[in-house]
Amino acid sequence: MSGHSKWSNIKHRKEKSDAQRAKIFTKIGREIAVIVKQGGSDPESNSKLKDAIVKARSNNMPNDNIQRCISKAAGEGSGNDYEDIVYEGYGPKGVAVIVETLTNNRNRTAGEMRHYFDKYGGNLGQNGCVSFMFDQKGVIVIERTDSVDEETLMMDALDSGADDFDAEEECFEILTSPETFSAVRDSLEQKGYVFAQAEIQMIPQTSVTLTDEEDLKNMNKLLEMLEDNDDVQEVYHNWQED
């Protein structure tokens, strides 16, 4: 769930253990609950909910689980104990890191974020200290299979309003602006395409390579601790992994 969208990362996420998948489902469920409380339970009138449902499905979250999250949130009234807080900082050798959280205790979450960055060779910064190094983009990834024709998919994507199309060895990656993401995704979904990933992400403009063994160890550990934290929804960074 971190860094730029590449098929190896997506495949790794989908192959996680049952316990890890359960944690991912819990985080997505919390995101859905907050969105429902803020904008209602109808995905046709709540575009953020529609986006979250597609994200949940691309993470292999069962439809029953998704509907249960929506129904539960809709029946809990308008109260919302969680707030969105974004943390920015630097990992080893200045790797830029953005952490999106949903928390019901900002003091706890801030303390944990600071601890992780300090412990693993980085430091937590002020809002805006690294976000200027990223572009917000809609990212749609479709697995390369015999049933997907590259030329047809490229034309379908561009005709739908996509900004860019990239054919990789095991997948196709489509980039959109945040404003056109939903329209492009809906258009491709109506044409029968199945998404390995479909969500709005922070894409780094440049990347940083780590060569020192200690830096590599610390960066991996920092990402592991962040992604394992219950309050963390997404982690983005500009480390160019091998």
How is this structure best described in words?
- With 242 residues, the protein is of the alpha+beta class.
- It contains 8 helices and 8 strands; from the N terminus they run ααααββαββαββαβαβ.
- It has helices spanning 7-14, 18-39, 47-58, 63-74, 106-119, 150-160, 181-190, 213-228, and strands at residues 83-90, 96-103, 123-124, 134-143, 164-167, 171-176, 197-204, 232-237.
- The chain has a 4-stranded antiparallel beta sheet. Strands 5-6-4-7 form a 4-stranded antiparallel beta sheet.
- Strand 5 and strand 6 (171-176) form a beta hairpin.
- Helix 2 (18-39) runs parallel beside helix 4 (63-74).
- The protein is globular, with a radius of gyration of 18 Å.
- Mean pLDDT is 90; it is low at 1-5.
Write the layout of secondary structure elements.
Blueprint: H1 7-14, H2 18-39, H3 47-58, H4 63-74, E1 83-90, E2 96-103, H5 106-119, E3 123-124, E4 134-143, H6 150-160, E5 164-167, E6 171-176, H7 181-190, E7 197-204, H8 213-228, E8 232-237
Antiparallel strand pairs: 1-2, 1-3, 2-8, 4-6, 4-7, 5-6
Helix pairs in contact: 2-3, 2-4, 5-8
Short description:
This protein is an alpha+beta fold. The protein is 43% helix and 21% strand. Strand 1 and strand 2 (96-103) form a beta hairpin.
